[in-house]
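Narrative of activities, Objective 1.

The group set out to show that a structural description can be obtained from nothing but a protein's sequence at a throughput compatible with the screening campaign. Below is one input-output pair from the validation batch, recorded exactly as produced.
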Amino acid sequence: MRAVECAACGNQVLCEKFSVAHTSVQWTADAAVVCAEFRDRVGPGGTTARVRTCGTLRASIDRAVEDGSLTVSALEPGVPGSGTREAVDV
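Output recorded for this entry:
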């Protein structure tokens, strides 16, 4: 997994790409505080559990793929942990 920083807020997530459509993202615990899109959509006392994505972060991940800092890696059959992460399309 590679760190990808959101161009808008600087929030960092860990990402892994297994195909063009399959992006695995691990969010930080403070995403609702750091990410303006999350913060604006959640509101006071809310939860980020129902917020599926941040459009600006998605664009940052796409740029990381385009510039080669995040590459599409192959799933390796029979390798423990390979392809077992939860996929989240951001």
